[in-house]
Amino acid sequence: MEKPPANSFCLLLCVLVLFLSLVSAVADDPQDKQVYIVYMGSLPSGLEYSPMSHHMSILQEITGESSIDGRLMRSYKRSFNGFAARLSESERERIAEMEGVVSGFRSKKLQIQTTASWDFMGLKEGNNTKRNLAVESDTIIGLIDTGIWPESESFSDKGFGPPPKKWKGVCSGGKNFTCNNKLIGARDYTGEGTRDNQGHGTHTSSTAAGNAVAGASFFGIGNGTARGGVPAARIAAYKVCTSTECGSEAVLSAFDDAIADGVDLISVSLGGDDGEVLRYEEDTIAIGAFHAMVKGILTVNSAGNSGPDPNTVGSVAPWILTVAASTTNREFLTKVVLENGRTLSGRSVNAFDLKGKNYPLIYGDYIEGSQVEGKILVSGYSVSSDVAVATIIRDYKDYASISSRPLSALSPDDFEFLVSYVNSTKSSQGTVLKTEADFNQKAPKVASFSSRGPNPIAVDLLKPDITAPGLEILAAYSPLSPPSLEDQRRVKYSVLSGTSMSCPHVAGVAAYIKTFHPDWSPSMIQSAIMTTAWSMNASDAGVASTEFAYGAGHVDPIAALNPGLVYELDKADHITFLCGLNYTSKTLKLITGEAVTCTGNTLPRNLNYPSMSAKLSETNSSFTVTFNRTVTNVGIPNSTYKSMIVLNQGSKLNVEVTPNVLSMKSVKEKQSFTVTVSGSNIDPKLPSSASLIWSDGIHKLRSPIVVYTDIPDSI
Question: Which residues form a coiled coil (predicted)?
């Protein structure tokens, strides 16, 4: 065989080299790397330190690239130290081992999680509620969410003066976005601008601190005055979510800015995917909230929407106030009226009016469009028909949601009755009425979707902390977002359900407390909210209706203003808690920015928390556990508090409090006590619980006590 000419061989070799270089270039494209977060703890105190330069030099060292364009995504440099960058897994591993790095972890997609609810909790409209308006007007709530609709009447600045002098933020909302003296700040981390195109952030912002807007409704449903918990407070919006994702690296940037901007409280209605729980050093909300706590800022976070199974709560750090979702005394009912006069009450937010006209009822799950035209479809599927006049479905939820077509969701019993009626009655007819608000005296009940404990990270820390209204909440909305799937309507106010809705309720309560106690620390506010909560009774059997669902109980804004005693925590207490979870002194020094020495056997359950919880190693043996606590007097001098133990239903615990009387001579005085809990053979499927109540005849504060073993992951 004849050899190819030398120049042909060179040509082939050059083509091969070019091809390999192109393949290599494509393989090394930073856009193909994953986004990782590198958390480096507190900012060094030296003035000569430049976070951005340090972050760039780390990337240059690890990648071997002089230019890191496309690599560095975000630099956290205002309130704590770290960065987000596009890296390969091997590069992440090398950075994670570097001196000065706490953790390196992949950025994850987080999920977004009213007229009557504030009245239900006791915060009445106008002069019917005690307020400190001068301080309330100086209170700033930062909302990390999907943005905000600045033109909403809920955020009008009519009657507002200039922003508080402490405000250091900016209005960087993007094109055609304007802040005012109510909505004083806006930042965007998505590239879309801070304008809300989903409605979620507008809804949460107005729930926490929206103006009082009369005549708000969803097409007449729920008509009334929509308002937030602190209508005179200011709002700063931090947009971290697009329509497809809420990047955790963006959330950390929002915390970095919000802390430095000067907000007083942070509300975050976001959480991990499907109940995913991360260790604190890889949880961006826990990281941001820790540094907020150090600066005196309380973070309120939704518990998650992965219930009712146990072990699903996603917000588990003690420096975060974690909120479950529960019902109020109002529910939206959509009645089905049959031709024989029988009325069935279903759920939905149905703004369509059939004018009481009866239509033929037809039952079936696989019916062709022409068969249901001009009729009302009765279907086991949870979707409405585009062809039928209306649809009646079986209710798979415990709350009403908006439908783009006439629809009512019946309870299983009523649905089975209707199916039987349709099948047995020739030419059966009926109609679906427009939704009406129904007020009742039912005790609040935790929603089935609300994530439950126990806490998978710190097993001796009870989570969630509290529950608040989170079902069928009417609040401001974005006109850019349809109120339901395949919906062509646009609204200024809409109805949503979720722990996303309960979270801003508690943020509003925390802000309300802070207006009367501006010097209170985050832990004091959290303690006041938890220890004055309404007691929740088990609404159903099983673990889903225990303290793992609602924590200390249902928030009570008025009682929380004057708790009498509080459980205080500071940065040092949280460091001791982390020592008890086997964090090393080296890691804690990076996180806190100061020398830390972990000594002795520190038990996490002895964190001075307003609730008490302990996981036992065995179920069929005798046990004794102790909790050490200290309370601070924020009530009146010369007060005497006596303890009382209330055992919850079925509990066989023995509980002793030593001492069982606390005599407080002065305000800010601290006194300690020990709670000893003993028992044997507890139910392995349920927690055993009791309540410790301290009372001086004026104040009454309650702490749940919970002991448990391994709780199954499903109910």
Answer: none
Mean predicted confidence (pLDDT) in 486-512: 96
Structural domain spans, the chain = 34-106, 116-328+446-558, 330-438, 564-569+607-708
Query: Can you read off the two tokens belonging to residue 486?
Result: 């395949």
Q: What is the pLDDT of residue 291?
A: 97
pLDDT tens for 654-683 read 999 999 999 999 999 999 999 999 999 888
Q: How far apart are CA 30 and CA 324, in angstroms?
A: 40
How many Å apart are CA 312 and CA 335, to the nearest integer?
34
Neighbours of 330 (CB within 10 A): 22
CA-closest candidate to residue 471, choices 49, 117, 111: 117
Q: Are 359 and 429 in contact (CB under 8 A)?
A: yes
CATH class of 116-328+446-558: alpha beta
The confidence band for 443, taking pLDDT boundaries of 50, 70 and 90, is confident
Cis peptide before 659 (omega within 30 of 0): yes
User: Is the backbone peptide bond immediately before 412 cis, with ω within 30 degrees of 0?
Assistant: no
Question: 649: Cβ–Cβ under 8 A, 6 or more apart, which residues?
Answer: 538
pLDDT digits (tens, 9 = 90+) for 392-416: 999 888 899 999 999 999 999 999 9
pLDDT band at residue 599 under the 50/70/90 scheme: confident
The CATH number that domain 330-438 falls under is 3.50.30.30
Give the residue numbers marked as catalytic.
Answer: 145, 200, 500
Whether the pTM exceeds 0.85: the reply is: yes
Tokens of 140: 């700033």
CATH topology of domain 34-106: Alpha-Beta Plaits (3.30.70)
**295 pLDDT higher than 90:** yes
Angstrom distance (rounded) from CA 371 to CA 338: 20
Amino acid 126 reads: G
Q: State whether CATH 2.60.40.2310 applies to domain 564-569+607-708.
A: yes
